[in-house]
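Changelog note: in this version the structure field was regenerated for every chain. One regenerated record is shown below for reference.
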Amino acid sequence: MGGKKKLTLKQMEKMQVKKDERREGKSSGGPAEKKPAGIIPLDPRSEKVIGEIKKMKVLTPYSVASRFNLRLSVAKDLLKELEQRGIVEYVSGSESLKIYKPLD
C-alpha cells in the first residue's frame, strides 16, 4: 500500500557516490568556508573603529556587525556605548531596530 518507493538504479548510484565522498571528507561544491562572527567586542575608544564608523552614513546594528564581523548583540552594545560617549546620535527606530548617525 503506502511506504517508500523503490529507488531506481541511477538514484541508488548517486546516493552511494555521495556517501563515499562524505567518508573521504570531500564536499561537493558546497558554500565557501564561513568564519564565525567575533564575540570579542571592539575597543570603542580606538581611532580606527571611530574612523570607520564616521565614514558610514547610517549606522544600524546589522551594518556595524557586518562591517566589523561581529555578532549582532555585540554591535548593539557597541552602538549604545558610542552613543553615550557622544560619537553617534540616535535618529530613529523601534524596539527591534535602532538607527544611528555619526556626529561630525
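Spot check on this record: The first strand starts at residue 88 and ends at 93. The longest helix spans residues 9-24.
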